[in-house]
Amino acid sequence: MPTPIRRIIHIDMDAFYASVEQRDNPALKGQPVAVGHCQERGVVAAASYEARKFGVRSAMPSLIARRKCPELIFVPPRFEAYRAVSAQIHAIFSRYTSLVQPLSLDEAYLDITQPLLRRASATAIAEEIRASIFEQTGLTASAGISYNKFLAKLASDYRKPNGLFVIPPGKGEAFVAPLPVGTFHGIGPATARRMNSLGIHTGADLRACALDILKHHFGKAATFYHGIARGVDNRPVEPNRPRKSLGKETTFLQDLHATPELEQAMDKLVTLVWAGCLKREISGRTVTLKLRHSDFTQLTRSQSFPHPIQNEAALRDAGNRLLAPLLPLAKPVRLLGISLAGLSVAGQPAADRQLSLLP
């Protein structure tokens, strides 16, 4: 008996944190809202669609966001409220399938190949889920439907906000072909820039690049890139998958030689990592620095703490302490990364090491 074609739904709440704030405070409706703190080291955890029109984005330093949108209203995050709404949303998911893989409080994959409630189609299930979310929470969600996780994620982004899009079997490769590689989930900004420097700008360009060439430039990730350019992604939906670490790294288009350049790059990476922590309401006890030289020799340095890192400044201090013994640079640097491990939900005891992303 042939294996049934998988049916995957990706649900993504629209501007989740900011939308909750606008729902709970009518004075914020229609206003440019940023969830976060407007201070020197502050970061935007989420931005309303009104704020996004000005170029305000999550993970953006708060002072830059304020410059882009002088009328921006900053609201401190209320994670208890977001977690409560997330629990409502996941209760809706559980009506249809036990195969739910949360990515954060506001985003999840659902495998409905064999749904618990029979409906005419995957599209009908997705529409029913979106309607239930709106009815119970007053918030909108976007949905993408396809035969694998990569395409479902692309599809949910395609009609945001409050939209639904389907990429049916046999159409994935054609859908991917004209899209910029920078829009692909799993290809970050640094990798996209690296690909662009190699003449890879679209899915079609990526498909035309031989696997051995991709392996030379991107190592183990090359097989994944080779597959998604063809609309192929065999990763299963993994319920209760624990996140082991959270980090960011960047490969520089030109090798760095000077200490100030490296310190500036470190500062940006820390901001991005901490923004990810805020979004997921997590932190970690172990900070790891990764540094790769121009000759591809690589160094890693780690430090563990008795309690989870409490704020962005503490993460920055830890990263800089790990970096300091490596300065001045003996050789140019092509890659820098910073990550947190030993994760726990913010506010839980440090002993709760293993984190489930289920609310």
TrEMBL record:
Alphabetized, the UniProt keywords read: Cytoplasm, DNA damage, DNA repair, DNA replication, DNA-binding, DNA-directed DNA polymerase, Magnesium, Metal-binding, Mutator protein, Nucleotidyltransferase, Transferase
Cellular component aspect of the GO annotation? cytosol
Site Substrate discrimination: list residues.
Answer: Y17
Cofactor notes: Binds 2 magnesium ions per subunit.
User: Where is it located?
Assistant: Cytoplasm
Record CDD domains: PolY_Pol_IV_kappa (cd03586)
User: Which residues hold Mg(2+)?
Assistant: D12, D106
Give, as one word, the top-level EC class. Answer: transferase
Name of protein: DNA polymerase IV
Q: Which organism is it from?
A: Acetobacter lovaniensis
Q: What is the taxonomic lineage of the source species? A: Bacteria, Pseudomonadati, Pseudomonadota, Alphaproteobacteria, Acetobacterales
